[in-house]
Every structure is written in C-alpha cells, then in structure tokens.
C-alpha cells in the first residue's frame, strides 16, 4: 500500500470509530474479535502435531536455546508445533517438523531481538550480521542461535530445490532486517503512523520464509511465470498481512501493556485516540477486506496455474486460517479473553 493509499484508508476508517463504540458486543475482547472477524477457512490440524511438538523440544535443547528458563517458558506459552499444525495441516511429518522448528526459532529470535534492541537498535547489529552471513554467504555460526539457523538452512537445502532454498534464504534475510527496523521505530520519540507500522509489520511477520516450504510440499515447482505473476505476488502480500494482523488483534492487550508499537490494532488506537476495543474493531475491518481480496484474486488466477499452483495457494490460505485458530487458544494471548469489549 502506498503512503497516499494508507492515508486514504485512515481517513475512511475514522468516521467508523464512533459507530464501532456502539456496535461492540458485551463480553470480552476475544468475543468481539470472534464475532466480527470474517474467517472463511475451516479449522484443520495436522495429524503429526504431537510428534512435531516433541521434535521442537528436542531441537531447541540440542542447540541450547531453552537452557534459559524464560525461553523454555515462552515456548510453552507459544506452542510452535500447534501453529505449524494449524497452518500446514496436509504436510508430511518431515516438512511439518521443519516448519515447526523454524517457527520456534523465529519466536526465540524475535524475543531476543526485542530485548536487545530496547536500549538501542545498535545492540542488534551483531545478531543481524551473523544471521545475514549465514543466510547469504553460508558463513559458520558463532552463537547458539546462529547454529540453529545454520541447521535450518541446511535442512531447507536438503528438502527444497535450489531455487526454493534461495527464495527461503532471501525471505529470511528480509525478516532479520525487519527486526532492526522495528527496534529503530521503538526507540523513536514519536510513535509511527499506521502506514509505517504496516510496512515494518510486513517485514517482521516472518510468514513469507514459509512460502517456499509450502511450494516444496507440492508435486513440482511452480514456474517463474507463476511465481512472478502480479496477481500471485499480490496474493503473497495479502496472505502475509492477514496472517500477521490477526495475531495483532489477540496480542494487542499484551503489547499495549509492554509498550509495543508495531501492532495494527495499537496503531489504530493511537491514530484515532479511541479505546482498545474500538481500535480492534477497526483493524478487523481492514483484515476482513484483506481476506476478501485474497479470495477474489485467488479465484482469478487459479484457473491459469499448473498442478502445483492450487496447493501453493492452499498454503497461503493456511497461514491466514492457522494464525486465527492458533491465536484463539495459545496461552501467550490469554489476556484477550479477560479484557472487556466495552470500556477498555
């Protein structure tokens, strides 16, 4: 979305704040989200979820990432294998394990980046540079987190085609750089506008590195024409945005209490100086529009795709669906069910 389009969207949503105040149902913020969010994709779970959960625990211990009790507790509260299961219900056990391990890695990386970057973005530079060196130049790791990333990189190259592995590495580097941008925004004296929040959120969502793994689950590669088709590229953006904005709804309470800025609902709250439930309702409207556009464009391009295309689009849709059903039940966002939908 361009800056002008973002300003237009903010203006369009502004008159709806007062209306939203009267439309919010009695009950919790979670109930408000459930009653207003349009979720056309049914709940699905992968039958290998429990095996993947055990594998995540073992993999994190192997690289020493859960030696810190706080990290171990975070993993319990985030349930990476459950998110992988809901996002990728049809993947085989090996590929699901790779997805689950990568989700766990990104949770650890994200929390550490937030902790290090809080006093100043420059403290993130060693962590960012190590990750980029591993992903771009295949340099040996120097930290346990780097060793875990190198292991993921090796497994991706074993399971994926060279082109898919290259796309995975590129998207993963974007995610790493995005966390540096987030730290810069968090350290700025003025909170960022909605357009900047969504731009940074698109980088730190960490969803697009999984698209090559969705492709690897198909019987063959997509063609360059399919991958680079403007509609396909737009679908990728819509999927990633919806997938990350949905957890923003459920995490808004936690992020607000922690002073977080890069969250769609909190961006609307600042922009319109409204209550958190009103801001959540406005964010829901934007997410609903994003999902509706995804469905419409999917119908447009699907007849033009080869055998791998429909399954690849299923993978994109799976991230939207999975992030919703996971966010509803994960302990990390339990506060959402305790906050009233009116008066917060």
UniProtKB/TrEMBL annotation:
Coiled coil: none annotated. It comes from the Bacteria. Gene3D superfamilies: Farnesyl Diphosphate Synthase. This is Sesquiterpene cyclase. It comes from Streptomyces daghestanicus.
């Amino acid at each position: 979305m361009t800056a002008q389009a973002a300003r237009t969207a903010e203006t369009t949503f502004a008159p709806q704040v007062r209306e939203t105040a009267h439309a919010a149902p009695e009950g919790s913020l979670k109930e408000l989200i459930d009653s207003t969010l349009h979720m056309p994709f049914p709940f699905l779970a992968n039958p290998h979820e429990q095996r993947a959960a055990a594998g995540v625990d073992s993999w994190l211990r192997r690289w020493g990432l859960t030696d810190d009790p706080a990290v171990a507790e975070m993993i319990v509260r985030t349930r990476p294998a459950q998110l992988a299961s809901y996002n990728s219900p049809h993947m085989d056990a090996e590929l699901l394990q790779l997805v689950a391990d990568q989700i766990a890695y990104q949770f650890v990386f994200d929390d550490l980046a937030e902790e290090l970057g809080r006093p100043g973005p420059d403290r993130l530079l060693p962590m960012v540079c190590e990750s980029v060196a591993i992903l771009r130049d295949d340099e040996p790791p120097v930290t346990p987190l780097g060793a875990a990333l190198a292991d993921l990189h090796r497994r991706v190259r074993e399971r994926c085609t060279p082109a898919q592995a290259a796309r995975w590495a590129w998207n993963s580097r974007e995610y790493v750089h995005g966390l540096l941008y987030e730290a810069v925004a968090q350290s700025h004296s003025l909170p960022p506008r909605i357009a900047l929040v969504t731009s940074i959120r698109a980088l730190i969502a960490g969803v697009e590195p999984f698209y090559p793994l969705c492709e690897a689950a198909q019987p063959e590669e997509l063609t360059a024409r399919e991958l680079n088709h403007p509609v396909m590229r737009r679908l990728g953006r819509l999927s990633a945005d919806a997938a990350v904005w949905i957890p923003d709804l459920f995490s808004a309470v936690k992020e607000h209490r922690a002073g977080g800025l890069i969250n769609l609902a909190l961006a609307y709250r600042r922009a319109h100086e409204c209550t958190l439930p009103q801001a959540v309702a406005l964010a829901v409207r934007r997410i609903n529009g994003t999902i509706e556009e995804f469905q419409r464009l999917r119908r447009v391009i699907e007849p033009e795709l080869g055998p791998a295309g429909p399954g690849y689009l299923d993978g994109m849709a799976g991230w939207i669906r999975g992030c919703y059903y996971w966010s509803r039940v994960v302990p990390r966002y339990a506060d959402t069910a305790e906050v009233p939908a009116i008066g917060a």
